[in-house]
Structure formats: C-alpha cells, structure tokens
C-alpha cells in the first residue's frame, strides 16, 4: 500500500490526488482521500485506480488544508469496500481518519481482545485495529497513539488525521518507508519520496523507526515511542516494490538496483554473451548496472505494454497468468541469434520467468543466461508485501539447477543475502530469503508451513 498526507497546504485533497498518482504502483485495488478544513472531516474512497475513483466532482467537495490518502494492495483482509482506506472513526471527541501501509502480525489476538471488550469491526483488515486501539487509550491524542503503537507488532507506517493535526508513525524496525517534506508553508508525508518531485517538496526527512511525528499548531515535533531496534527496511522495497526515483532511508532505489546488477556481473567474470536485457520495468536498473560492470551492451529486447497493470499485484493466480501473457513482447531483430544475459529482479512463483524465457526463445535467442537481482525467495512475507504461501514460492521447493531447468534457461544465478546486504549500510529485512523474521510472528507462525 501507499500512504500520503498533507498538512497545512491549500487544496490539500488535490495535492493528495497527485501524491497518490505517484504512489499508484504500490496498490491498485482501492484508494481514498480524507480531508479536514479544521472543523469537519470529509472523505471519498472506492475500489479501483485513482483515476477511476476520483473525478472532478468528489475532489471539489473535499475542501480543506489537511488531508490523508491511501492506495490499497490487499495482503491481510480481502478486497472489500469496507477495507478501503482512509478509515474513519467518529465519536463525541471528534473524528479521526487513518491510512496504513504494512501488516500487523499480532492482529488476531488484538482484534479478539477488542471484540471481547465491545468493539464492533466494519471490515476484515488488520488496519482497522489501529483506530479501535486508539479510541480505547487515555490521555492526549499523542499519548493514545503512543500507547497504541506500543501494542502493535509487525510492519506499519500509518497516518492519523484529526480535524487539525496529523501524526505519522513508523514501526520500530522501519520495515516500511515513510518520510515528509516541506511543501509551500506546510508539509507532505509520503510512503515514497518520488511524490515530492511532483509537488515541489523540499528538505526531505525520514520518519525514524519507532518514531511518531506530530504535525500540529503549524509545527513538526518528533517523539520516540519505543527504543531503537535493529533497523530492517524491507529489502523488497529496494528490489521490486518502490519506484526507482525514490530514496528509502536516504538510499536511491535505482542506484541500489544498479549496484545489485554490478554484483551479479562481478560473479560472472569471463561469461560470453552478446547483450544484456532487463525485464521491464523493475529490472532495467539492475540490467544497466550489469551492463556497465561487465562491458556487455544493454539492449531493449523486451517491450512492455504499459496499459496492462502489474501482474503480481493482481489478487488471483488466474488474473496474474493472463496479465503476464498480455504484458511483454520480445523484439526479434534484437534477440535473434544472440547470447543473452537476462536480468530480472526476483522469482516468486516462476511463472513470469518461464514465460519470458519462452518468449525470447520463440524470438530466436541462442542462449539465455538468467540472473536474478535478489536471493531466492523461500519464505513468505508477513509484513505487507505479498500473500504467497511457501507452497507457491517455487524457490522453496527447487534447487537452483531444478529451477533453471523449470524455466528452460541455459544458466541461472541469484544474488546472495550477503551481497544484498553489502549494497546499503542501513539494515535490511531479508526474511523472505533466509527466514530471519525481525519480529515474533504470532498469528502467522503456523502459516510458515502452508
Ligand atoms: P515470477 O517469475 O515469480 O512469476 O515473477 C517474478 C516477477 O514478478 C518479477 O519480474 C517481478 O518484477 C514481478 N513481481 C511483481 N510483483 C512482485 C512482488 O510483489 N514481489 C516480487 N518479488 N516480485 C514481483
Ligand atoms: Fe520485505 Fe521480504 Fe521482509 Fe517481507 S519478508 S518485509 S518482502 S524483505
Ligand atoms: Mg518484473
């Protein structure tokens, strides 16, 4: 998912609309915006893309200079309208709106306890728990959010908006990215920094793991709700999920991917090949890094139909299969008779890789050496990236050679976890590669065996 917020900038809803457009790659199943004019909170949300859910009319109705918005990619909880965010809670003390990116791993026990204490939930997503928890705490809103954050385990970057303030909260490992920037006389808050280019944001600051940043009374204050723990930014944010023009905890995504490609090239010294091809779009950066480091020219051997949505992010396997077939084509005049280094960012289920190798062979490729700019994904993610069970993860059941045979490549290599870690100095979560989850798993521990 992607979250975006605006504090004290005129026409906050329009700005949020632009921000969410730049975050659309983080989720396409639903979206919404809540706005406050200082007295009243209004919202609009629906299932589908920003361009589908928002047209002129709903934006005009959303007047005010404080806003939060969300693009949804469902992991926990299905694609129900009730799960689309922002979520609102209305009480005699006022209205709160919330947007959340991540996944709470102790959600079931928190939810059961809340239900036993009388809470009534509208939907099935883990995000709704956050609002219920806040309502049950005592003290100032900051104190309530602090008490709530302390009870949540797992991955979260969330925003809470009241009539006149926004609170930005990041989990204590910093699994999901969150930052803010100065925009005109106010601030914008965003999952990814690519949004700030669109809206002329400057002076970007990362919300630190374990921090609450409060935007209120025309100023920004940082509070720590938990001691610093091992920082563990999701490696997949760098490898696949984020946009190349974003920086996560200060590290540019494109440069990270280029470095991963260069590391793959270094392991391939002396390999004989004619061209390097990246699978568009997410693997082009890594492929350019490989080409630069190896001296083998980069070529555009695969073309993407940009009007087909990202395959993976589709919720069912059937939709994903159809997506892959519509999405990519090989350029025969480039690949015919060539020995190709084919770079992709990751192998999850293996469907895409197998199909791409087949496409290139049909277009006359002579040899295909597949290089993956991440380690083998052998464990499921419970922190909000995808819903694959171990059963579906092809690398969990095959050796590299078996996998190479399965996708019909001439050779196959992955990046190691150590190589991945060497790329950026900040800590990384690498649980989907090595099973080293950074939190307890609670409700999800048993899913490890599914
Ligand atoms: P597979 O070969 O496993 O079918 O697909 C891997 C491809 O799916 C990669 O090219 C990657 O860019 C793309 N992909 C789409 N969504 C995701 C995701 O959520 N996680 C990962 N790791 N890869 C994804
Ligand atoms: Fe990211 Fe993998 Fe960790 Fe999930 S398990 S947060 S996808 S690195
Ligand atoms: Mg890809």
Automatic annotation (TrEMBL):
<dbReference type="InterPro" id="IPR005854">
    <property type="entry name" value="PurF"/>
</dbReference>
<feature type="domain" description="Glutamine amidotransferase type-2">
    <location>
        <begin position="1"/>
        <end position="218"/>
    </location>
</feature>
<dbReference type="InterPro" id="IPR029055">
    <property type="entry name" value="Ntn_hydrolases_N"/>
</dbReference>
<dbReference type="GO" id="GO:0004044">
    <property type="term" value="F:amidophosphoribosyltransferase activity"/>
</dbReference>
<keyword id="KW-0328">Glycosyltransferase</keyword>
<keyword id="KW-0808">Transferase</keyword>
<feature type="binding site">
    <location>
        <position position="345"/>
    </location>
    <ligand>
        <name>Mg(2+)</name>
    </ligand>
</feature>
<comment type="pathway">
    <text>Purine metabolism; IMP biosynthesis via de novo pathway; N(1)-(5-phospho-D-ribosyl)glycinamide from 5-phospho-alpha-D-ribose 1-diphosphate: step 1/2.</text>
</comment>
<feature type="binding site">
    <location>
        <position position="432"/>
    </location>
    <ligand>
        <name>[4Fe-4S] cluster</name>
    </ligand>
</feature>
<dbReference type="InterPro" id="IPR017932">
    <property type="entry name" value="GATase_2_dom"/>
</dbReference>
<dbReference type="Pfam" id="PF00156">
    <property type="entry name" value="Pribosyltran"/>
</dbReference>
<keyword id="KW-0658">Purine biosynthesis</keyword>
<comment type="function">
    <text>Catalyzes the formation of phosphoribosylamine from phosphoribosylpyrophosphate (PRPP) and glutamine.</text>
</comment>
<keyword id="KW-0004">4Fe-4S</keyword>
<dbReference type="InterPro" id="IPR000836">
    <property type="entry name" value="PRTase_dom"/>
</dbReference>
<keyword id="KW-0315">Glutamine amidotransferase</keyword>
<feature type="binding site">
    <location>
        <position position="381"/>
    </location>
    <ligand>
        <name>[4Fe-4S] cluster</name>
    </ligand>
</feature>
<feature type="binding site">
    <location>
        <position position="282"/>
    </location>
    <ligand>
        <name>Mg(2+)</name>
    </ligand>
</feature>
<protein>
    <recommendedName>
        <fullName>Amidophosphoribosyltransferase</fullName>
        <ecNumber>2.4.2.14</ecNumber>
    </recommendedName>
</protein>
<dbReference type="InterPro" id="IPR029057">
    <property type="entry name" value="PRTase-like"/>
</dbReference>
<comment type="similarity">
    <text>In the C-terminal section; belongs to the purine/pyrimidine phosphoribosyltransferase family.</text>
</comment>
<feature type="binding site">
    <location>
        <position position="234"/>
    </location>
    <ligand>
        <name>[4Fe-4S] cluster</name>
    </ligand>
</feature>
<keyword id="KW-0479">Metal-binding</keyword>
<feature type="active site" description="Nucleophile">
    <location>
        <position position="1"/>
    </location>
</feature>
<feature type="binding site">
    <location>
        <position position="429"/>
    </location>
    <ligand>
        <name>[4Fe-4S] cluster</name>
    </ligand>
</feature>
<keyword id="KW-0460">Magnesium</keyword>
<feature type="binding site">
    <location>
        <position position="344"/>
    </location>
    <ligand>
        <name>Mg(2+)</name>
    </ligand>
</feature>
<dbReference type="Pfam" id="PF13522">
    <property type="entry name" value="GATase_6"/>
</dbReference>
<keyword id="KW-0411">Iron-sulfur</keyword>
<dbReference type="InterPro" id="IPR035584">
    <property type="entry name" value="PurF_N"/>
</dbReference>
<keyword id="KW-0408">Iron</keyword>
